[in-house]
Write a structure and sequence with these properties.
23 helices, Methane Monooxygenase Hydroxylase, Chain G, domain 1, 556 residues
Length: 556
């Protein structure tokens, strides 16, 4: 085997993989906001999960990235194993889009695509044009890599005995496909090599189909690696992927003559037939297992028993595997952790109320314990966001990420104010301070409004709800006015001797802390409105550019 041919083949594989990487990054940049929300749409039925898996894998141009995201979501408790299985089935179908794409003979147009892409990338007037240019470069490099791989295999025409062994022993083909994908960590690269060999007349269906089936086993290694060090749920999700593909290969190898016959009628071109075999296998395998999804998941849970354990004292949604899989999903994870942080701070406020009104020391202790978690999570969000910020993010996503980090600081300050209030209540109990009935009624009014403002702020983040955010702004104004009014009334009571002077000082501090809580809720609401505005402006810009290009949004 000539060394130059080996080097040429390696270079072709490198161009092919780099082309896919550029295309994937382009699609993520152009659809990142939609992509980061897509996983949240998975319902209890696996059918929707299949749709999500197909779309996400097509956008990412990588089933591995989709399955890593799925494993991460199960690890975080965002997705059940049953839901994850649907996404995994869809990812298998989505990855066949690449095979269909490379079966087209675009090799002669590879360099023009690269040339146009470079011009757009270097001289495009807008960021979107530059991103599109990178995508065209990737598209061209993908087919340039295919052409290079095909050219490197010419010397193998005199050594067809190697491939005859695969035809006579299909299991060798399965093992070869598995090994190739394990080696290059890309199912698309294996399929590309098989199609390149078929284009040179080196492989027929008898040898090519088993290699492609083996490729479907090898691609599961990514999910397995992602589950290392994760919880039971993540390991179960990885096992679902392995067993689903493995059982499918066993079924189709057992029915190989029938499967081959079906593939043969789909096209007269062997490279196209091989691409079709990849698609048919994954679609048919999904249709076979779909009715048995729940029993299959139950079986996996028995093979890897145990409940999913989520660490309460650590981030629940901040999975570093998401950063490499798709930064947009990592930004979405920050928002999920931000909402969790907000609910924890709201729980602190509830315990503050119980500690003061019911004089329950256990509730006071819970506030102090929760504050540790809130502080830890805030720092965790900041560290994670710094890592995400190093990834390739669009301008809108970068601004959104920064807004979420600032939001975490606001929530941490709410936790600090809750702690301050608890310390004030403990001080009042230790020093036997007595508040008048009017003071207690005013506290209830102030507390109710401040807590409601913060609650609506967190709800607005959770649901990206502009109406709730605007309601917070109104409430914050009310709390500001109320704080001034109650402060004035309390000073009047002090002057008349209706309240103890020492209790009066504490009460003023209580009002101040509650007013600050509403202020931070206001900051969070403004953050939500800014993020919504960025999303809307981005969509309007996209629609306007599409209309100017003669492709109005919504047109077929």
């Amino acid at each position: 085997m000539p060394l130059t041919s080996i080097l040429q083949m390696l270079g072709g594989v490198g161009l092919f993989l780099f082309g896919i990487k550029l295309m994937s990054e382009t699609l993520q940049d152009l659809s990142g906001e939609k992509l980061r929300r897509l996983f949240s749409t998975v319902t209890k039925t696996p059918v929707r999960g299949i749709g999500v898996g197909i779309v996400v894998t097509t956008l990412l141009q990588s089933s591995s990235a989709c399955t890593v995201m799925t494993v991460s979501f199960v690890h975080a408790g965002l997705m059940s194993l049953y839901q994850a299985f649907g996404v995994i089935m869809g990812a298998n179908i989505g990855t066949t889009v690449t095979a269909q794409l490379i079966a087209f003979k675009f090799s002669d147009f590879a360099l023009p695509f690269v040339g146009v892409g470079v011009l757009l990338s270097m001289f495009g007037r807008t960021k979107r044009q530059k991103i599109l240019g990178n995508g065209l470069v990737g598209f061209g490099l993908l087919f340039l890599g295919m052409k290079t791989m095909e050219g490197s295999m010419a010397f193998l025409r005199d050594r067809k005995d190697i491939f005859v062994a695969f035809s006579n022993h299909p299991l060798l083909g399965v093992l070869a496909g598995t090994g190739m994908t394990l080696l290059v960590q890309s199912s698309a690269a294996t399929v590309g090599l098989v199609i390149a060999m078929a284009s040179q007349g080196l492989l027929g269906l008898d040898a090519g189909i088993p290699i492609i089936l083996g490729d479907n086993i090898g691609t599961t290694i990514t999910a397995v690696l992602a589950s290392i060090g994760a919880n039971r749920g993540a390991k179960q999700a990885a096992a679902c992927h392995v067993l689903f593909n493995l059982f499918g290969v066993v079924i189709f190898m057992a029915a190989f003559p029938l499967f081959k016959g079906v593939v043969e009628v789909t096209s007269s071109s062997i490279p196209r037939q091989l691409a079709n075999s990849h698609t048919l296998f994954n679609v048919a395998n999904t249709l076979i297992f779909l009715p048995f999804s729940r029993p299959f998941v139950t079986m996996v849970q028995k093979i890897i028993p145990g409940k999913v354990a989520v660490l309460d004292m650590g981030p629940r949604f901040l999975d570093r595997r998401l950063i490499s899989a798709t930064p947009a999903a990592a930004v979405h994870a920050v928002r999920q952790e931000l909402v969790r942080l907000g609910f924890l701070a709201e729980e602190m406020l509830q315990n503050v109320h119980a500690a003061f009104v019911e004089r329950d020391p256990k509730k006071a202790e819970e506030v102090f314990q929760t504050e540790k978690l809130v502080n830890q999570l805030t720092h965790g969000i900041a560290r994670y966001a710094a890592e995400v910020g190093q990834a390739s993010l669009s301008e809108d996503l970068s601004l959104t990420l920064g807004a979420y980090v600032n939001g975490a600081s606001d929530i941490e300050r709410v936790g600090d104010h809750a702690t301050n209030l608890t310390e004030l209540f403990e001080y009042s109990q230790e020093n036997h301070l007595v508040f008048s009935e009017k003071a207690m009624a005013e506290f209830e009014e102030m507390f109710t409004n401040a807590r409601l403002a913060f609650h609506l702020a967190i709800e607005s983040i959770l649901n990206e709800d502009g109406e709730a955010a605007r309601e917070v702004l109104v409430l914050e104004d009310r709390v500001d006015a109320l704080e001034k009014e109650l402060r004035k009334k309390h000073i009047e009571r002090l002057n008349t001797g209706a309240c103890q002077p020492s209790a009066g000082v504490v009460f003023i501090d209580i009002l101040s802390n509650l007013e600050r809580i509403a202020d931070h809720g206001n900051n969070l609401a403004l953050m939500v409105l800014d993020v919504i505005k960025m999303d809307m402006e981005g969509k309007r810009t996209h629609d306007a550019k599409a209309a100017a290009a003669g492709n109005p949004a919504g047109a077929d």
